[in-house]
Amino acid sequence: MIIDKLKRLETNLVTLKKIKETYCYEDFLSDKIDEWGLRYGFFETIQLIIDISSSIVAEKNLGMPKNYSESVILLISNKYLTNDLGEQIIKMIGLRNLIVHEYGIIDLKKLYEYLNHLKNIEDFVDEIKKLV
In angstroms, rounded to a whole number, what is the distance separating the alpha carbons of residues 11 and 18? Predict the structure, then answer.
């Protein structure tokens, strides 16, 4: 299961990189469908990270997280992720929660700027590949 999710995560990463290369911020302002595509792309990508993290925590019997962020915290405390990378992943989980639960209006500029942090997703994939 983790390997399949990692493959999907890598595929999503390729797509997000293409979006970054192809679109500028103004494209998302002028086309709601593109904006929704960006939102969903990040949602699914972050959800895969959550699923992978939760699976590792369960398989390695690292504890009983109360929420998605705690799964990442357990990966950090057990040295599966560095503090810096883990903190970036936790921020992404916060973005996912905003997208899903609509706690507020999502700032499109900030959403677009997450395209500048795709390296964090790459690093996550690299670290998890060492485990499986």
Answer: 11
Q: Which of 49, 40, 66, 37 is nearest to 8 (CA)?
A: 49
Our answer to whether residue 117 is catalytic in this structure is no
Marked catalytic residue, from 8, 39, 101, 117: 101
Catalytic residue among 8, 39, 96, 117: 96
Are 93 and 124 in contact by the 8 Å Cβ rule? The answer is no
Distance (Å, whole) CA 124 – CA 22: 24
102 Rama class: left (phi>0) / alpha (psi -120 to 50) / beta? left
How far are the Cα atoms of 51, 58, 90, 118 from residue 84, in angstroms, in the given order? 20, 23, 10, 14
Q: Per-residue pLDDT tens for 55-113?
A: 999 999 999 999 999 999 999 999 999 999 999 999 999 999 888 887 557 889 999 99
pLDDT for 102? 73
Q: Which two tokens stand for residue 11?
A: 């595929």
Q: Which domains does the chain have, with CATH numbers?
A: 2-129 (1.20.120.580)
